[in-house]
Fold this sequence. Notes:
The protein is mainly α.
Amino acid sequence: MNLYEACLEKFGVITAVMILADFSGFMADFNRANEEELKELIAPLNKDKDTDQIKSFVLEETGVETFGISTIGQAMLTAYAAYANSYVAFKHSFNMLVSGEEYEENQVMAFWGLYADNTDFQHIDFHIMFYDNAFHSIYTIKSSMSLILFEAAHAMDAKTKFVKCKNCGQYFVPVGRSDSLYCGYPSPQDSSKACRDVGANAARARKMKYDVLTQEYRRLYMRFKMAIKRHPERTDLQAQLSELTEGMKLRRKQKEEGTLSADEILEWIASIDKLSE
């Protein structure tokens, strides 16, 4: 329940239930397996536990050195590692489906294999039920990987278009206009409003801030250039100009990657400006 409550607070009820179901599924698999099956489940986790970043992170500072089910704590860490691997596979498969990027053929064929030779990964039950005076197809999807396989098949069959929201960066399926730029999820600026309601205004605000950033950089750049012309003997000015230009290239890249904000870059420019006084 601690795991569920933490996930519920951070991700919401649907994702929290999916994570708990996956985690519990791995615990159940370990509990049901006989000795030989257990070796097959756990041996791959221990094979590269010291070099694999995910597995090393799971075991770090736990006092547990290997994966297994000798204790409840060890079993939970083993389920954690198994779930983490499943999540990575889920995310990679999702990105292959929606991002539009090119992937190596062996990766694409491995994904297609989940619909051919490796259908054991599809943990999906199908039933036909009769209610409301009609027959209905009922699918019970038992893992996140099964969910992506189920949705991917239907999305490809329907030629569904996926769009990355220009405001929050989440993928969504446009409803109505196929050229929609903003999704209907809660916006990062105001969770009571959807991105499609605030996205355009937020984009204008970001553009204005970026324009201020460019203006401040150019102002300081020209100031250094003029100072160097007046005082060519001052090597410190040339060094500061180089720090400004090279530092700006790095910070623009960091901004594009989302690891640095425009405000932080403005603060950095102000610090260079202060040093030049």
